[in-house]
Amino acid sequence: MAVSSAPLWLLVLLGVSLHESCIGTSSHSLKYFYTTIWDPSQGQQPHFVAVGYVDDQLFVHYDSHSRRKQPRVSWMEKVGKEDPQYWDRETQISRDSEEMIRGNLEKLRRRYNQSEGLHTWQLMYGCELQQDKSKRGFVQFGYEGRTFITFDKETLTWVAPDPQAQITKRKWDALSPQNQYWKSYLEEICIEWLEKYLSYGKETLLRTETPKVTVSGRMEVEDGMETHICRVDGFYPREIDASWRRDGEVWLEETFHGSVAPNADGTYHYWISIRINPKERSRYRCHVEHDGLQEPLDLELKEPTNSKSNLELIIGCVALVLVCTIAGIWVFFKKCQDDYRAAPTSDKGSSSSDQGSNRTV
User: Fold this and answer.
1) Which end of the chain is more exposed for a tag (fewer CB within 10 A), N or C?
2) Gap between the Cα atoms of 111 and 359, Å rounded
């Protein structure tokens, strides 16, 4: 694969399904993802990409070709106007991180006694602000697509599941001031920048779009059972509570669901299905709660208008899963709830939302 298409490819590579939960109150997040890919067939210089997301919206981008941190949304132009040095400062952080991460990739190749072939080194970090004002933060490094080391901000120590990462753990655990800074960044500085970015992009990031909910059903000719699918589309923000209810109570038996996935217009879609005895159809409802609804929706099930085979129903559901997975594969990083970077001076840290990476393995 050509290097020019590496950014898309590495997002797919890194796309670990993000502990996807569609249930919950509205929250906001600021996250950064760094990746270096070394592929001898594409040259001797590893390809580097750094991207930043506010919620699920890509807002900044840097790569080893442009060598410049650039905005990816129009509302980020406000930042440069208020702070003329912002893009120069962010660009320098990314360049420093690129050099350090490339060096770490080379060290790890030697540590694992590897030479030829494709190798990757990844950094993921960020923070999340819940509607109740509670805060979360994460830092995680990955090597070859697997977790290498993560930061525990409560104990100010690093967790290393890989034996080779124990070397790095012992080295970083000894750096108490830097670890303390990481905690401060995740719980304070990162949150402050998140709130600032939300104020810049409030027209899109803080908007509300009402979900469109439809229910359809099919009878299975093999056994006379029915499969009903509840589709929820066009909603924003991302958090939504959609479930099947029987006699008013949540019902999980014989139910399936997709992943909350993005639409081209920035809204989201989701689906849930259930397999029932048609004699009990009147007992079931598709229940939907969302910020865009004044009150919860409860849609009743209707008698199927035509019959389809169980195989066709399964194929249809699988197709929906694939669409959701492909559209939202980058969502991966949510599952990796942890963060990293060595502590800069407090002045530099407070003037930048992107902490980069300047710690050697």
Assistant:
1) N
2) 16
Q: Which of 152, 171, 60 is nearest to 107 (CA)?
A: 171
Backbone angles phi, psi at 176, to 5 degrees: -55, -45
Give residues with Cβ within 8 angstroms of 11, minimum separation 6: 51, 329, 330
Query: With 50 as the cut, is the pLDDT of residue 108 above it?
Result: yes
50 in Cβ contact with 64 (< 8 Å):
no
Burial class (CB in 10 A: 0-12, 13-18, 19+), 115: exposed
CA distances from 242 to 43, 88, 230, 309 (A): 48, 44, 9, 26
The CA–CA distances, whole Å, from 95 to 11, 101, 176 equal 20, 10, 25
CA-CA distance, 276 to 246, in Å (whole number)?
Answer: 11
- Please list the residues that pair with 284 across neighbouring strands: 246
- Is 14 exposed, middle or buried, given 0-12, 13-18 or 19+ CB atoms closer than 10 A? buried
Residue 271, SS3 per DSSP:
strand
Give per-residue pLDDT as tens, 131-151: 888 999 999 999 999 999 999
Q: Which helix (H) or strand (E) holds 9?
A: helix 6-14
SS3 264: coil
